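Can anyone check this?
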Amino acid sequence: MPKLLKVWNLGNTTVRNPNRIEKGLQVFAQEFQGDLVGPEAEKRFARRLVEEGIVDSEGTYSDLLGRKWRSVLVKLGFSTNRQYWIGNQRYTVGNLATDRPDLKLKGQGYEMTPVGRRLLEADTLSAKQDIFLRQLLWHEIPSPIEPGFPGGHMKPFVFLLQVLQRLHRSGDAGLTKVEIGVFLQPFVDHTEESLNSGLEKLLGYRKNREQRNTDKIVFDSALLDNTARKMDVSHNTLTDYADTTFRYSMLTGLLTISSSRLILREDALAIIESILTKEPHFTAKQDPLTYLATFYAGAGLPTDDMIFALQEAGRLITSIGDYGKIPTIGKEWISAITNGQDRQKARYSLAEQLRDIKEEVFSKNQCNETAVNEILGYLDALESKRPTDLVIADRPTYLEWTVWRAFLAIDHIVVTPIGRTRRFPVDDNLLPRHPAPGGGEDMLFEFDDYLLAVEVTLTTKLRQLVAEGEPVRRHVVETKGTTNKEVYCVFIAPSIDNNTAETFRIGVWYREDSEDYVNIIPLTIGQFRRVVEVLLHHRFTPQNFQQLLDKCLSYRNVRAPQWKKMIATEVERWARRVTTP
């Protein structure tokens, strides 16, 4: 008999960035439904995830990777399991399809569920957030999907919300990863008593930690070690689970991060309050069939109620008006909608408008010293890989987002809305969800005198050339075909391989027998950081930056290794020249 689990995990640590789940589900839906059993199928699934750019791999396609991704889809209710155990009875997907025909399942193991289909059909971020919220609110352990826990029952995400709500009401700070790992991640019987006890221990820990004169990091590490031993897991497992709790819970749109702490979003308090007046409500043990059916159909939310949805739409309309903007949909028009689905779509549309407005404000704020210092901090963390208090959910994604912020700080961008400058998506907190898709540059900024394409990568050595050499040149040529302005490209990576530099140095792209030349300047993250650092001392313009680009390009008649050295020298010269009065 396998040992009982003592800690819970919302997803798994292999699928570290849950914002990629949607794309993984798409591959599963198109190619692997009902055909994902056994090492060979699992390995094929892993290969396709890598080929689609959903997973970064060094050329290995392990069956373990495929199993981990399949597990996430099952745990979140987007795919059926192969079979279930209800009590001591084996229960198949075929049984479920027969007993609950409303789910319209074919009865296959590893088949996409109705809520999985809804996720793929969702066309706004708000709609996707609602789906993840439904799943995490309903998620209960133990259950027919996750049976291996001790006696009692627990709704992990609801437990997290309850703790955060009580901290918010008392004016206390949100939760750190250490606090989640020690006080929330262990499985408990989810009762009012266990909630109060956990909160009391958490506040006691904070008081004790504050009074210590010794290194607080050492204190936290010892506490994590002690908790991990009690839970029969490793220190790293506990911290990794806490990290995934941070990431997965933010998919719901109810939470955000402030100073490395997970907190409730102020504009989501009404929804959270409504949720917690009815939760936790447990179903899995008492009525496992209803638990499965609801998990696969999608649980209810307060916003499913017409009156509550109207109130939320009204809040969004007021918020848009507070920014001095006119809502695209009026409250009177929404009040006249009688179809619940149409009213939800109207609410989602207003949420998208408000997000665009906030992004414009965000872009203007990148010029201030606090924002520039934060950008520099992210560049340092992404370059060095050293431990940091900054939350970096996915390094490739956060590199794109950080570089984008840096160019927003330079300002003088003429394209609007500002969201058109990036090809990666952001969430309600304007944090990146996943990297830009293939087929174009990561970012494109238009200034008065020129266009700047920006490509970033964490690849190095020869793999960098293989992954980036062709697409970067092609993207720049395609951009040149859309404008009469001069087009430059800045390519940013931890280090620049000589073969990559040589490809960009020559800068030739052929259309059959016709050749075209592209201007691509390779910079290391460290060199780009030096450019951004100048903003703390001098508000340089796009024209100033163009002078640096032209100077770097003027040296490309030498061999690649020398060109790289001359670029490094010129970046430093330019930085000193711009900051000299």
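Reply from J.R.: I decoded it. Residues 305-361 form one domain.
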